[in-house]
Task: structure prediction
Amino acid sequence: AAWISPGPAMLVCLRASLRGGLREGALTGFGLALAAACWTLAALFGLDAVFALYPWAYGVLKIAGAAYLI
Result:
């Protein structure tokens, strides 16, 4: 049943659609799809192996992501 429940990405897209209309929702959906594609490519090229070798790099990535959101 977990695979049919809406996740946070779906809720973000729904919120954007309700607040900004179709265009805002579509742009949010495109951004979420682009982010998923980037993470897929990163995993494909072994970013996980880099983080295993350099654990501090993952911490830097998390801090950079948090700073971006602020």
Summary: DSSP finds three helices and no strands in the chain. The helical segments are 8-44, 47-53, 55-69. The mean pLDDT is 87. The longest helix spans residues 8-44.
